[in-house]
Amino acid sequence: MNIKKIRMSILLLASSATCMAQLTDAEKDSLYIHQIEDQKEPDKVLHAEPLYIDLIRDLGARKGEKEWNLGLGLTDNLRFDSYEGLIEYEWAPADRLGLEVELPFTFYSPVNGTANDSVPSNRLNSIKIAAQWSFFVNEPMATSMAFGYINEFELSDFRAFGKPFLRGNIYNPFLVVAKRWGNNFHSLIYTGPLVEQDFRTNRFHTTYDVNTSFHYMIPGTRNFIGVEFNKSISRGNFDMTMRPQMRLGIADNLLIGIVAGIPVSRENERLSSFVRLIWEPGHPKR
After folding, report:
1. What's the burial of 197, exposed, middle or buried (CB within 10 Å: 0-12/13-18/19+)?
2. Which of 34, 78, 114, 188 is the most buried (most CB within 10 A)?
3. 91 and 67 Cβ atoms separated by less than 8 Å
4. Is the pLDDT of residue 8 over 60?
């Protein structure tokens, strides 16, 4: 009897695999989008979100969702290399509301005979806390919008750590607008000011960021390829870095994102790279 059950299970699996193989890409996409958007409440739109300028939980987040991120990056700054890292936890305590805590850090290494004392000191950059509220989610339009706020407590570098402990604060409200075109093409705009306050002088400096991204999601998967354009305007200066990227699913709840950085109009920065490991505990199996 057990042998018959095993044979029947094998036949059912083989039949399911054959049916999936016979589906067109459009049908696979429709099934996957249905799985993300329609199996739970409230409404949610599937979007491909950028890997470098990361969002605070998914747009249209549902209560109970959570995610861990580990990021590592390398940037060539002409006189020295900078190694960036981050540890990040984000979760949704309520529908449409995402919260995040992040610890970003940077280590520096001189190149081309640069003196150590002319290289910035290693540092835990800041303690970042953030919130994001999706105020508009429309499945027929495949469009989502969200307001968010990041507060970044800037810390002293390791050479002068604790003198003072906090050297400044960054206030960063932002707006996100995302649109899916058909089943596979995605676009997103993330924009807002960064107002930096130096506690030692009590001076303020404002930078305005406009980040746009475009992605193509591989049919029937969470994998995508795309590009970010990270643009900033500060005191009349315009900087932009282009970041081609790809995301691959390793398991149902584990993803890896790979990003390259190509500065378009930065004077002191050359190529960079960044890798983001994304773990979603409790993510449902497909």
Report:
1. middle
2. 188
3. yes
4. no
